[in-house]
Amino acid sequence: MDRWATFDCYGTLIDWNGGIGRELERRFGADRASTMLHRYHEVEPQVQREEPTRSYRDVLAITLSRLGDVPVEEQDALGRSLPTWPVFPEVRTSLEEARAAGWKLAILSNTDRDFIDASMERIGVPFELAIVASEIGSYKPAHGHWDEFFARTGADRSGHVHVGASLFHDVAPARELGLRTIWVNRLGEEARPRPDIELLSLSGLAGALDSLVA
After folding, report:
1. How far apart are CA 146 and CA 125, in angstroms?
2. Residues 151, 124 contacting (CB under 8 angstroms)
3. How many structural domains are present in the chain?
4. 28 and 105, same domain (yes or no)
């Protein structure tokens, strides 16, 4: 049986908060950046639910425009910056260790193909596949990414683990589907719902995966 680990990308492998936060600080100033980032977290899922077939580039632009008075020429600022957002420092080694232990890796991301391709190049570790929202007309926490993953791979659910930093987008829907979960709690949050395993970073990933699927 193949063992599959699927991953959220932005917030789990790529520093989503850092990337968006820098653009919000540039646009709204350092004193408002934290408040605007919190507001961004609230607005983006609303934009995604309104029209699940939107590209993520459009989601970024619409969400930014709803945060305040943003000139038209600046509304694509997040999309322009996304390919440069940094990889968390432990990610590459952790993914390489998982691959060496025999795990197949896939990304399930609320993004576009060009964005995920740029981010995977920065990560520098091969993935068997990446499923993106704009190609399936569905944004997590809807179940479309997992439906598409199992349809494409025929993976055995008993050999599958989903890894994500968002309780809302990843842990909760994966649990609804009866899947094993690893939560990467980068922000020191309280786990609701509870994952199978909680990590503070991706360090220790291979051992955590092996403990869930021998």
Report:
1. 22
2. no
3. 2
4. no
d(CA 53, CA 201): 32
Distance of alpha carbon 58 from alpha carbon 5, whole angstroms: 29
> pLDDT digits over 55-66, tens only?
999 999 999 999
Q: What is the pLDDT of residues 122-132, one digit of tens each?
A: 999 999 999 99
Residues 184 and 127 in one domain: yes
Neighbours of 69 (CB within 10 A): 8
| Angle 102-107-108 from CA coordinates, rounded to 5° | 135
The model carries a pTM of 0.96
Full domain range(s) for residue 53: 16-84
Domain end position, chosen among 37, 57, 84: 84
Q: Are residues 102 and 188 in the same domain?
A: yes
CB proximity list for 94: less than 8 A, separation 6 or greater: 202, 203, 204, 205, 206
Quick one: residue 73, left, alpha or beta (phi over 0 = left, psi -120 to 50 = alpha)?
alpha
First-to-last C-alpha distance (Å) of the chain: 11
| Same-domain check for residues 37 and 106 | no
Label each residue of 119-149 as H, E or C.
Answer: HHHHHCCCCCEEEEHHHHCCCCCCCHHHHHH
Sign of CA dihedral 14, 15, 21, 22: negative
